[in-house]
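Why do we bother with holo predictions? Because pocket geometry can differ from the apo form. Keep that in mind while you read this record for zinc ion.
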Amino acid sequence: MDDGTYALVPRDLPLADPFHVSGEVATGFRGGAIVVGLKSLEAEYHEGARMRVQAVEEDGAWVPLDEDGLIAWSFYHHLASARDQLVDQGHDIQPLFPLRFAYQPTFALDFLGVENAAYVAGTGSFVIMPDAFDGVPLAANAGVVRHEFGHAWFERLTTAGPIAADSEVDPVRALNEGFADMVGSLLLDDPAFIDPSLPLPERHLVPEHVASPELYASGPKPVLSYDPYALGSVYASFMWNVRLASSPEEALALAADAVVTWATQAADDGYRDTDRFVQAVLDATEGDLHATSCQAAGRQFPDRVFEGCP
Amino acid sequence: MIALWQLGLGVDATALSSASQVELAPGGRLWVGTARPVAGPLALGSTLEVQGTAYRARTDLYTIDTTFLRAAPTFDLNVGDERACFQLGVGPAVAARLVSLQGGGLDVDTLRVEPGARARTAVDVAFGAHGVFRWQVALTTRASQLDYDAGIGLGWRW
Ligand SMILES: [Zn+2]
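The structure, written out:
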């Protein structure tokens, strides 16, 4: 709701086929499987059966008759409203649609960095796993759905040009998670958007996060030993500071442009230097916003010298 | 030769299809059956089962209570003798599902009656003069959904 709280409210769903949860935004599936293609060595989603949402009409609104139907329709709604917001703000995201989402698919291998609602890199597909806690289900959390959509958008921003950043490489994962948190926080104008589902103070963007050398991925590491969220939160809280000095729309536009700039420049070093994202944001700002952003960057990245800042 | 009448009570693990997965819940089952020998180890019969389960989905946002009851008569083929018998049954089914959804100003109670068909396979093993141990698995359709259940139970036959 507008005050940031959650409630069950009637929604207009742009759904051509509500029973199967299918429309111009996405199509939902029961189960299916995430596998790694033998030739491509990349993740693929093998679709499961169609969803089947039974619902009852109550005071002119349709109410799903089970929790999974409620979550599927909520997820679709949040994805649709995220799309509408971004299109309104002039972002070129329409080619990403329609997307797919899979309820509780099986995984043919351990899935890296799994979240209860997650975007599977390279597949145009989201997975939704049942939650084990009492808060708003992640797939029904407006900010979490925007965060996950942020991963799909990040993938498009970094691969639309001639450059293909591998979003699964550790340094890129940190910026990827940071960008996804920017999308969640800036579209909702809420620096703590995960909280209705579960309190995660370490992901709050206020107070600001500060980078330190151990937050950066260094050298080849065992799978899963690197935490991309810590550095990601530094980037996202830096953009939150930029937002405080401008507007959510302007900050998000700066972030999206800076991801493209970073990806285009960063081929030589294997995309390791993600702080160039911050430099690209600073380069795109002027006047008071530039000065305030430079101050924030100075506080949050104490070991880095940014060009163009006093 | 197979006993003519049987009355039983059992517990099930039920897997009821939802919009996108299955809801696992414990359930209970009552059955009454009859069988008539036809030739050798074969007997024909019928069973009426009544099954029930209830479960709750709760978050800070909503509570959804589901109470589920199903009646299913099956026509059975029995193979075996008094000590052990294998049973295959098929027949129509009718389910009644009461869903109560509350949260955020919504308070919806709705009763759905959903027809379907049921197929089940059971093994009966006798103990004592009248006791029967039953193990069974079953598949049931319900409107557009497919449900599963597996259970054990104790019967009395005469
Ligand atoms: Zn993420």
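Residues 1 and 232 of chain A are 27 Å apart (CA to CA).
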